[in-house]
Amino acid sequence: xxxxxxxxxxIDNCLRLKSIGxxxxxxxxxxxxxxxxxxxxxxxxxxxxxxxxxDLVIVTLDGKETIGTNNPSSERxxxxxxxxxxxxxxxxxxxxxxxxxxxxxxxxxxPAIIEEMCQxxxxxxxxxxxxxxxxxHSELGEETANALGNMNAVLIRNHGPVCCGRDLNETLLTCxxxxxxxxxxxxxxxxxxxxxxxxxxxxxxxxxxxxxxxKENLK
Length: 219
Ligand SMILES: [Zn+2]
Hints:
Helix content is 41%, strand content 12%. It has helices at residues 3-19, 76-85, 98-106, 115-121, 137-148, 168-188, 199-211, and strands at 29-33, 39-41, 57-59, 66-67, 91-94, 153-156, 160-165. Zinc ion is lined by residues 27, 75, 94, 96, 159-160.
């Protein structure tokens, strides 16, 4: 995708997140991995309504350089360390959607309870091991990238979700699946009535999504 297209799609997705209530105020952030392996990321404390494609900044994945005149998101270390750990990830969204944030306050992983979780997330949504304030940028980044492991969504304890994917559309969908899973988990968790999907079926679901979904010959 061309640079300008990437920048515009980031802003479009910011506005989408706002319109569906997944972010409030200036919280939340989006990044995309560029072809040169650096990331384009949203800005710190700028309202999405006035943020323009050309305002976004580039941060190198070694963390040494920021290209652009504005300040990148304060959570850039979360994005940067995930891209460094996972070459398969090309877009990251951190939002504050309500049910996932509620689950992050419970501080337990969300088990694989709906099939979309197997396909998009790879199974359960893990959670960071302890509360880390957002101002502790490096520590928060390291902890979040570690907790994410091989999954495509993670809960930052007492904060909110970070979702990942191969492109921005898939990542937004992952945010929506995470929110749906958290809603169902919270509504059923009080009496443990949600049944977890067996581990083998979780693996099969992920394999189906990556290798077969949309490619079947249904004749
Ligand atoms: Zn946040």
